[in-house]
Amino acid sequence: MTLTDAQHPALGDDVVLLTVPADGGYLGVLRTATAGLAARLHFALDEIEDLRIAVDEACAMLLAIATRGAELECRFTVTDDALSVEVSVTTVRGARLPAESSFAWKVLTALTTSATAEASGRHATIRLLTRRTEI
Question: Please, which domain of life does this record's source organism belong to (predicted)?
């Protein structure tokens, strides 16, 4: 497991890269990192929990198509009012992400400001963005 700051974050942004084995036993590490970074942005407790669930769901989607021995790469970008999470994995040949009409995808879009995904070759990425609601 590796935790490093990105070498060239955008001015004013904090970037954290966390890499863990593509195994469900490590998802707690990603959920905890998500909650800690969201708390740093002063997200409301329900926003933090929604984001933790969204990251967990995105990772579960990727674990289902990951190659044996793959690693989940999770890139967190913290800005003044938002947390962006990008999760990537090497996939098995012919792997496909769930359709946007699937229940899993509906969960992602309901819990975040925006969610996108792409799969090309043997690599898949899911990007989540959550903006802090103004109080």
Answer: Bacteria
Q: Where are the alpha helices (DSSP H) in 18-130?
A: 27-40, 45-63, 103-111
Residue 118 lies in a domain: yes
Residue 100 is predicted with a pLDDT of: 86
Token pair, residue 55, equals 């990251």
What lies within 8 Å, CB to CB, of 16 at 6+ separation is 3, 4, 5, 6, 33, 37, 75, 76, 78
Question: Cα 127 to chain center, whole Å?
Answer: 6
Within a domain: residue 8?
A: no
- Would residue 50 count as lying in a domain? yes
Distance from the Cα of residue 99 to its chain's centroid: 18
Please tell me the total count of domains within the chain: 1
78-125 per-position pLDDT tens digit:
998 899 999 999 999 988 898 888 998 999 999 999 999 999 889 999
d(CA 48, CA 27): 16
